[in-house]
Write a structure and sequence with these properties.
The protein is an alpha/beta fold. The chain has 3 domains: 234 residues, Rossmann fold, CATH 3.40.50; 30 residues, no CATH class; 132 residues, no CATH class. Helix content is 53%, strand content 13%. The strands form 4 sheets. Strands 4-3-5-2-6-7-8 form a 7-stranded parallel beta sheet, with helices on both faces. A two-stranded antiparallel sheet has the order 1-11. α10 runs antiparallel to α13, α11 crosses α12 and α12 packs antiparallel against α13. The radius of gyration is 27 Å and the shape is elongated. It starts with a strand and ends in an 8-residue tail after the last helix.
Length: 430
């Protein structure tokens, strides 16, 4: 069987050179252009595919040349990218790094060869000049069939890229596909065993948006698409699966602790007649959503209480601590707010002739309202991973639809939808 699959491999010179950052930037830029994008990861990695999935809105698969033979890898790549305009395959470690210290088996190089995929090498150019060419030349000629057709310089400045790109193309005959400048605010944090998971990254969507915007300016997306389009068709023999047996229900634990799955394994179970029980996963997502929302609300409650206490102490109000606590609790109720108490209280004080105190109460109410309107979207974003703009938009729509109660509940509903989408329970967009 033969299938055309436009594809390329984004390989790296070593771990930490910026492969995942560049891959996410490219994926997001392609998605922003309206293309149907597929993604895959070389090797037994489960964290990087999470980032891919968050970008493209669909599952990212694994190409593991240790567990899969050549035919299986080609079949899975073709099967998982049906209908895609382009597929980006992220490498693992350094390009030639495989089992042990002396073998290329199970390396990115092996995966690229097994799938006949063209390769674009990501090179960390920070703190280097002509030495970049020496590094690239080594990777080009280390193996006679390296398959490297392009180079991306990561951590490079615009000033350096011009002369380096000309040297890459004129001296080494390899295509310069652009660069990414150093963007500390968009860095994807890591720990001792690799990247932290996508759900743990604050403002991930904002980081991806900024990366994509930078990629459009500094990466040669057209060149990458040309390289991918020139990839030869995949030739493979589809596997013959046994007939599906009697339906079997299998429980699959999926949460922050249990998330290392090959999606192809789960798909195979379904093809063989298994029903994967994810009800507990949905329940866990619901509780996780409520927990994040409650945490954000508790922080807002504490901030409001502190503002009330300071304000009441400044106007020398008796029982300031008790009153601040009671008004803060009223503010936490969906259909009420600090204005329910402070506005009438200010009016009564003015009617009784105590205008300065009434004005002070109104000023306190105004400060609390402004702080809450600014702080709430950011808190929801920080705790739940929603962009502040999305949180603000949800609050506005909720307020228009159902008043104060809708303003509070709308971000919760949006967060729940996001959790279910990220977990693969629903699919609203690619």
């Amino acid at each position: 069987m033969e299938q055309k699959v436009p594809r390329l491999v984004l390989a790296g010179t070593n771990s930490g050179c910026g492969k995942t950052t560049v891959t996410c930037a490219v994926l997001q830029a392609l998605v922003t252009r309206g293309l149907r994008v597929g993604a895959a990861k070389c090797g037994p990695d489960y964290i990087d595919p999470m980032f891919h999935s968050r970008v493209i809105g669909a599952k990212s698969s694994n190409l593991d040349s240790f567990f899969f033979d050549r035919d299986t890898m080609r079949y899975l790549l073709a099967h998982n990218t049906q209908g895609c305009d382009v597929t980006v395959i992220e490498g693992v470690m350094g390009y030639y790094d495989g089992l042990g210290l002396t073998s290329t088996r199970a390396s990115t190089y092996a995966a690229a060869r097994e799938t006949s995929s063209p390769v674009v090498l990501v090179v960390n150019a920070r703190g280097a000049a002509l030495s970049v060419l020496a590094s690239v030349e080594g990777f080009l000629h280390f193996a006679p069939d390296s398959g490297i057709q392009g180079v991306i310089l990561n951590g490079c400045s615009a000033m350096s890229y011009g002369p380096l790109s000309r040297e890459l193309e004129n001296r080494l005959g390899v295509r310069a596909c652009g660069y990414l400048p150093r963007l500390p605010e968009c860095a994807l944090e890591s720990r001792h065993l690799g990247l932290i998971t996508a759900d743990e990254v604050a403002d991930l969507q904002e980081k991806l948006r900024r990366l994509a915007a930078e990629a459009e300016k500094t990466l040669d997306i057209a060149a990458l698409l040309e390289i991918a389009a020139a990839a030869p068709p995949l030739r493979f023999t589809p596997p013959v699966l046994p007939e599906a047996g009697a339906p079997v229900r299998i429980g699959v634990a999926r949460d922050r602790a249990f998330c290392f799955y090959y999606e192809d394994s789960l798909d195979l179970l379904r093809q063989l007649g298994a029903e994967l029980d994810r009800a507990r996963g949905v329940k866990a997502s619901v509780f996780a959503t409520l927990g994040k929302w409650l945490k954000a609300e508790c922080i807002l409650l504490a901030v409001t209480f502190c503002q009330l206490l300071v304000g009441l102490l400044l106007i020398r109000q008796e029982y300031a601590l008790l009153l601040a606590a009671l008004i803060a609790l009223i503010d936490a109720l969906p259909v009420f707010g600090t204005g329910t108490v402070l506005a009438p209280w200010a009016a009564v004080e003015c009617l009784l002739g105590n205008v300065p105190k009434g004005a002070a109460l109104l000023a306190l109410f105004a400060v609390i309202s402004v702080v809450r309107s600014v702080l709430e979207p950011k808190l929801v974003a920080a705790q739940a991973g929603l962009p502040p703009l999305a949180s603000l938009a949800a609050m506005y729509v909720g307020f228009c639809a159902a008043g104060v109660a809708g303003m509070v509940l709308a971000p919760v509903l949006l967060l729940l939808v996001k959790q279910l989408r990220d977990g693969g329970y629903i699919r609203l967009w690619r």
